[in-house]
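Data card: per-record layout.
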Amino acid sequence: MAKHQCPNCHSPISLSYLFFSKYTTQYRCVKCSALMVSNRRRKITGLTLAFFSSFLYSLINSHVQNLFLTTLVVFIVFFSILWLVPNQVELVDEQSKA
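The structure for this 98-residue chain is written out next.
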């Protein structure tokens, strides 16, 4: 069972949606056309990682003075942890929105 999949048909969710979308962006499943949106878990994970990343950046930058290397390490850690947290989307009831 995949970590990031459609709650309706269980097809995988695009990595670009998970990594580069805003928290208010809706996603439509390619296979079943179910409408999904980020849930509270994704928002809390993102905020926690933002604070953790700033702390990690200052910690690494105090020891390694290479800006590119420091930024690369922080981004790798950020996106890896974001990818490891499951169930970050939930279905949207389209009938209640209309």
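Known properties of this structure: The radius of gyration is 16 Å. The longest helix spans residues 40-63.

See the next section for split statistics.
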